[in-house]
Amino acid sequence: MTTYIALLRGINVSGHYKIKMAELKQLFINLGFNNIITYIQSGNVIFESSEKNNSKIEEQIVEQVKNEFGHTIKVLVITKDNLRNIFTSNPFLKDETIDTKALYVILLKENYFVEGIKLIEPYITNKEELKIVGNCAYIQYPAGAGNSKLTINIIEKKLQTVATSRNWRTITKLVELSNK
Q: HSE-up of 67 (CA within 13 Å, CB side)?
């Protein structure tokens, strides 16, 4: 069995795509997954599966959410090892004075449009910093993510991919929970 983390994009945000965590957990049970843990209302699910194809798991979750709740959402599924690598590869953590409350990770679906990174640059304002490592954009939002022009929608559009964002506190907690 492999431990995975499903990151559902956009559920329970501003009253859109509402799904209670108990219902989401039941959805994962219905899909045949094991040892399911949900974390906060923003669509983070840790689970185990014998399936080895992340894309197939993503498709199953998307289809089941549509069937059960009528929501068309985006989902990224990563392994526990991928999550650990995301955690340890954060280039901002080399600076011990960094305010981790201002750190976010945007996970990008593989095969994103690399040339699109140049198209993102005009949206970087307010002393923000963006560093892309592999399939992750690490972003420091000193003035707060809500005050930024560099949104998840801009990143998805310019990089022509599926993406989802989590703050550093959530990434840290998912690492902790996936190691239990």
A: 9
Q: What is the DSSP string of 89-123?
A: T-GGGGSTT--GGGEEEEEE-SS--GGGHHHHGGG
Residue type, 139: I
- How far apart, in whole angstroms, are the C-alpha atoms of residue 145 and residue 20? 25
β strands within the chain, DSSP E: 2-9, 34-39, 44-49, 74-79, 103-108, 129-133, 136-140, 163-167
d(CA 180, CA 176) in angstroms, rounded, equals: 7
pTM: 0.92
- What gap in Å lies between CA 70 and CA 7, rounded to an integer? 18
- Profile the chain (180 residues) by mean pLDDT over runs of 10 residues: 93 75 94 95 93 96 94 94 96 90 93 89 93 93 92 92 94 94
